[in-house]
């Protein structure tokens, strides 16, 4: 019988349990992370191969460890190293010699969660691992994830030792720091404190001249620095220890205020931003019409009511431009009839490849959107080629006729002045015979003209030298006559000379007569005309 028991003990298995090997332990042991737990354990083994003085050795192993060579987590065998660090976190507090295998675990870690089994050794034959009596250690974590709204609240940790009737607790004030969150943008369209609820759409439309107030708010700890920026340009910035809100006031929005507005909240833990796309809408304005004539490369601006003459058969290109939001619809109207655009994708361009008669009239460019309209009108005047040449010919003949009429009037005035001078009373003098005379005439103007070429006249019949006395008398007489004539009647002037004389305050006229010789008076019938040869010099 004893031999059968020894064989069963050596083979192990359920027969061994039946022969006196047993172990009682909790199947699952739960402990919170960082705390300690005692695992009660009792065992029994048969009294074979040992005495009361034989020491009993106990080992707690992590499941899956080879008990013959592996390191236990706790043991009372001083010659066996353990695997836990520090070494005293797992302790075999029970004495296997007294059938006690209790285990103490301190400062439990989450990674300690696992299956554990016990082995006992006493004498040569009691060497047994209780593989079917394992327990599972479950290390739980007392988790508290503070939320932003928990900032400033009190947290109390309380531990009760119910068996001993002892408890302890500790209270702290939470200081929850977090990056900016829940950033919102609110809008007010009136100069009041009322704000519209934040919209989910990042787009905002406003009419030109409207009041806008944009408010940015964010939740953060420590308080975040807020800023408003338009595109890449920072418009305003809050104080680092501000109230967590920042407003941007646009008292009268303009087209230049359109763009992408960004509110950014930032602290040492992170940042958050939100954008708002502002679109300022307005009626068409600054409507302009520009033209590009044939053989030209420069656009010409045309104002409202401009008359635009265009040569028949010439090409014309007109461009209508305006500023508006939403974009205006452009159209061309000629004489009350809407013209089809030359380029459907750009209705502001009107091309007339060949100007014809029916193109003449009022041409209007209209710009219209839901907020208003604007127009610019031109008068297109077609100039025909035949009329241009005919008008040029008629103008030429008209100019020639006018010049001829002026010339005849000038001759008439000269004749009238000469007749009045004759009637003014210069005493008649005897008609002189042909003689040789040199007349030097000096007329001083601000711009003297060229000297007249000397001319000498040779009498048809030989002349005889007169007596010195007669020469002197006749010289004085003729000199007096010519002197009076030169100073009293300078004669008609040309149109140019008349203009020049009007521009000058005074004109001085000097005349000098020098008679080279006199011939005796010839007795003959007076004639209406006579010939006189002189030499006239202009200085």
From TrEMBL:
Residue spans crossing the bilayer: 391-413
InterPro entries, per the entry: Ig-like_dom (IPR007110), Ig-like_dom_sf (IPR036179), Ig-like_fold (IPR013783), Ig_I-set (IPR013098), Ig_sub (IPR003599), Ig_sub2 (IPR003598), Ig_V-set (IPR013106), SIGLEC (IPR051036)
Swiss-Prot/TrEMBL keywords: Cell adhesion, Disulfide bond, Glycoprotein, Immunoglobulin domain, Lectin, Membrane, Signal, Transmembrane, Transmembrane helix
Stored Pfam families: I-set, Ig_3, V-set
Signal peptide range: 1-16
One example of a Gene Ontology biological process annotation: cell adhesion
Subcellular location: Membrane
Membrane-topology descriptor: Single-pass type I membrane protein
Annotated region described as Disordered, given as residue ranges: 450-472
Positions of the Ig-like domain: 180-279, 284-381
A GO term for molecular function: carbohydrate binding
Cellular component GO terms held in the UniProt record: plasma membrane
Keyword Glycoprotein included in the entry's annotation: yes
Matching PANTHER family: SIALIC ACID BINDING IMMUNOGLOBULIN-LIKE LECTIN, SIALIC ACID-BINDING IG-LIKE LECTIN 10
Family statement drawn from the similarity comment of this UniProt entry: Belongs to the immunoglobulin superfamily. SIGLEC (sialic acid binding Ig-like lectin) family.
Protein name: Sialic acid-binding Ig-like lectin 10 isoform X5
């Amino acid at each position: 019988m004893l031999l059968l028991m020894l064989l069963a003990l050596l083979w192990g298995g359920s027969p061994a349990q039946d022969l006196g090997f047993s172990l009682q332990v909790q199947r699952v042991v739960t402990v919170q992370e960082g705390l300690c737990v005692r695992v009660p354990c009792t065992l029994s083994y048969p009294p074979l191969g040992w005495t009361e003085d034989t020491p009993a050795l106990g080992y707690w192993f992590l499941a899956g460890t080879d008990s013959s060579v592996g390191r236990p987590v706790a043991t009372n065998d001083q010659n066996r190293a353990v695997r836990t660090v520090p070494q005293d976190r797992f302790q075999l507090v029970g004495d296997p010699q007294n059938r006690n295998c209790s285990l103490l675990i301190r400062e439990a870690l989450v990674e300690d969660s696992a299956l554990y089994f016990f082995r006992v050794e006493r004498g040569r034959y009691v060497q047994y691992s209780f593989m079917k009596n394992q327990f599972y250690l479950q290390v739980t974590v007392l988790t508290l994830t503070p939320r932003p709204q928990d900032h400033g609240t009190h947290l109390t940790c309380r531990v009760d030792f119910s068996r001993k009737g002892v408890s302890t607790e500790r209270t702290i004030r939470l200081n929850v720091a977090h990056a900016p969150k829940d950033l919102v943008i609110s809008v007010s369209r009136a100069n009041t404190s009322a704000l519209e609820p934040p919209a989910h759409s990042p787009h905002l439309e406003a009419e030109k001249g409207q009041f806008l107030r944009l408010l940015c708010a964010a939740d953060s700890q420590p308080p975040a620095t807020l800023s408003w920026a338009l595109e890449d340009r920072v418009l305003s910035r809050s104080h680092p220890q501000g109230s967590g809100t920042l407003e941007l006031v646009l008292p009268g929005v303009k087209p230049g205020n359109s763009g992408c507005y960004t509110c950014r909240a930032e602290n040492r833990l992170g940042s958050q931003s939100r954008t708002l796309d502002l679109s300022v809408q307005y009626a068409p304005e600054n409507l302009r019409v520009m033209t590009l004539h044939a053989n030209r490369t420069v656009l010409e601006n045309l104002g409202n009511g401009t008359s635009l003459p265009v040569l028949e058969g010439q090409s014309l290109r007109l461009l209508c431009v305006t500023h508006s939001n939403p974009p205006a619809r452009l159209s061309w109207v000629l004489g009350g009839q809407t013209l089809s655009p030359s380029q459907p994708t750009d209705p502001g361009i009107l091309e007339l490849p060949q100007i014809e008669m029916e193109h003449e009239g009022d041409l209007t460019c209209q710009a219209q959107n839901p907020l208003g309209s604007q127009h610019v009108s031109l008068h297109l005047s077609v100039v025909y080629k035949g009329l241009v040449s005919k008008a040029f010919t008629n103008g030429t003949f008209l100019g020639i006729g006018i010049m001829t009429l002026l010339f005849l009037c000038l001759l008439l005035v000269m004749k009238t002045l000469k007749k009045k001078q004759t009637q003014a009373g210069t005493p008649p003098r005897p008609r002189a015979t042909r003689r040789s005379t040199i007349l030097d005439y000096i007329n001083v103007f601000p711009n003297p003209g060229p000297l007249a070429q000397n001319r000498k006249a040779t009498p048809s019949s030989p002349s005889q030298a007169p007596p010195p006395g007669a020469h002197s008398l006749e010289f004085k007489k003729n000199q007096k006559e010519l002197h009076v004539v030169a100073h009293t009647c300078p004669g008609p002037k040309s149109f140019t000379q008349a203009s020049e004389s009007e521009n000058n305050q005074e004109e001085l006229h000097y005349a000098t007569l020098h008679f080279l010789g006199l011939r005796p008076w010839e007795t003959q019938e007076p004639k209406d005309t006579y010939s006189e040869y002189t030499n006239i010099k202009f200085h």
